[in-house]
Each structure stands twice: as structure tokens, then as C-alpha cells.
Amino acid sequence: MTATEHRSTALAHDSPPVSRLPLLDVLRGTAILGTLATNVWLFTAPLGEVTPLYSTELTVSASGVGQVVESVFRFLANGKFLALLAILFGAGLAIQYGSAARRGRRWPGTYLARALFLLVEGALHFVLVFAWDVLMGYAVTGLVVAWLLTRSPRTRRIVLWTAATGHVLFMTLVTAALATANVQEPSARETAELTALYAEGSYLEQVLFRLDHALLLRIEPIITFGLLVALFLIGVGLLRAGAFHPDVSGRRLRVRLACWGLGVGLPLNLAIALGGAELFLLDRYVAAPVVAVGYIGLIGVVVDRLSKFGVVANAFSALGRTAMSGYIAQNVVCALLCYGFGLGLAAQLGGAQPWWTLGLWTAVSLGLLVGASLWLRRFRYGPLEWVQKSVVSRFTGSPRR
Q1: Please, are residues 349 and 62 in contact by the beta-carbon 8 Å criterion?
Q2: Alpha carbon distance, N-terminus to C-terminus of the chain
Q3: Which of 360, 332, 338, 359 is nearest to 198 (CA)?
Q4: What is the pTM of this model?
Q5: Is the CB of residue 347 less than 8 Å from the CB of residue 48?
Q6: pLDDT tens for residues 71-91?
Q7: Phi, psi (degrees; rounded to nearest 5) at 367
Q8: What is the DSSP annotation of 104-125?
């Protein structure tokens, strides 16, 4: 037996059975609504999706009680669910690799087609719907981690710690550089033009704007590539450690994840958040991922204690099983509701912050939960999940179920 075959056999034994792990679906559903909890503020902001590029727009938009509510809501969401989704993507990748190893199939094999589909889908999502797409970054990172899964556990640990350490150092250096740099605020004319683009501009104008500023708007997955690699590998490690399994050892591990992730992550995240807007990179891309690990444990503990896997958990599970469709759908709905080429509610209800944004998040979230549950009563896969399977099977020649 070759070294590669030996590693494949070892992972096949350590991987969970082919049947779904219910907690993974619940976590995916939660992560989808969590990403919306961050992105919804971009849809309702005057500058739309370019808001993160301007520090003057990063502060909360309300005052009094509204300011407190908005600050807490943003704090609990910012960066946490982006990291959570990446961890879950890594866990899912490990499941696919384990399944291929058990069946004696080549790796990455059909996963190459899956990654290409995800990359194309993410590119279309970026151009046609939302500038801050995550699918493109996940597709590229997935290819790297797919190769790492054929390496030894020691190699993966070295890559994980190297990527994580390098990412923290890079974020620290960039934060220091931005603090000393003379960053110019956008001119009144530029601000007015961007506001008009989202409040009154046509759909085609927004598409052309994304294409004209593609590199700048695609900066997040570029500067966080090391973080994504580390989070994917953390997902692989948690899966192999049994963190998502329904047995006793899995429950104990989830308790430890909640205690350590929240016990360390929340104070660290709060301290950085209170340090000012200049630390936003450390807030979103260093402290938040630690909290995300705690979220995995906390959500797992809650699910473990739900009687007979309750109705709420089932709804989140349904959304998790249709996560790709839900992610695209929430951004399409918000764009149609908020931007000028749709109903233009962002401009009309701008004075009702933060309540109208919170109401929008609640309404879209409930719609996704109910819609996913009803869809899966009749169909086995979500719409985009079905398209992916159909396309992959056509190009790889694998049978389509």
C-alpha cells in the first residue's frame, strides 16, 4: 500500500458515516441567517454594498436605545458567521473526501467539478447580485484544502498554524499601517454619486460598477486567504474529533468548545471592538473567528437539549440542507427590496433605523426558514443544489440520483 493509499484509508476510518449529521445542517442554516445579519446593513445603508470601503460609514446609524440595540446586534454577527460558514465548509469537504476514500474513488476527482461550479456561481453572484460574495473564495480555498487532505495530519497541522499565525501578523501590520496612513475621506460629490447609484440607479449601472471595481470589491477573500485555509482545516479537525456527532463524546466536546470559544473569544472581541474603528480588521478577522468556534459549541449544546429535535431546529436544518440556495436567495430578495431598481425601501425608510433593518432581517429570515421547510417536503435538494449536482454529473459522467 502506498503512502497516499494509507492516508486515504486512515481518513476513511476516522470520517463519519455517509448519513447526514443533523447538527451540521442546523449550523449551516444558522450561518446563512448569520451572514444575512451582517450583510443586511449594507443593503439598507445609503452607500449600499460599498459601505465597508468608507470608514465614515462604519458607525451605527441610530441613537439612544436604537444605538445600543444596533451595536449589540452587529457585534454578535460581525465576522462570526463568515468564519462559522468556512469551518462548516471544511467539515463538509472532509466528509466528501472520506466518502471517496471508503468507495475507493480518486481524489479530488469529481470535487474539481464541484469547485469549478462554485467558482462560476460565485462570480455570477458577485457580478449580478452582491459584491461581497463568499463562494469564490471558498471555491479556491477548497481546492487547496482538498489537496491537503491527501497529506499527513502533521502536514495539515503545520499548514494550519502557519496560515493562522501569518494571518494574525498580516492583519496586525495592516492595522498599524492604516492607523498611521493619511486616509482621505470620500468627497461630497463621490458620496452623492454612490448614494444615487443605489437609491436611484438602474440594475445595469450597479452591475457595471461591480465590474469596474472588481479588484477592490474582491479584496476580502484575497487578504483573508490564510484565515480561510486555517478555518477549513479547523473544520476538518473538528469533524474528525467528533465535534458534530450526536454521541456522548461529541456532546462533551461541544461543551468545551462553547466554554473556551466564548470564554476567550467574547472578552477579546469586546476589548478590540471598544478600541475603536481603527481596529476593525482585528475585530472581524482575528477575534470573531474565535467566537465562531464558541458558537459551534453553544448551538450544539442547545440542539442537544431540544426535545425530539424540535420544530425550530428542523427549520434551521432544512435551511442548512439548502444553504447555497438560501444564501443567494437572501441577497436577491434584499437587493430587490432595498435598491432603487426594486422597491427602493432603503432610501424611503432610512430614517427608521435600526428598526426597519432589524425588521427586514427578521422577515427575510422567517421567509427562508419556512420556504426551505416547505421546499424539502416535495424535493430532495434545494434549487441550486440540484443544478450543481446535475452539472457535475454531466461533466464527470457520474450517475445522477
Answers
A1: no
A2: 33
A3: 338
A4: 0.91
A5: no
A6: 999 999 999 999 999 999 999
A7: -60, -40
A8: T--SSTTHHHHHHHHHHHHHHH
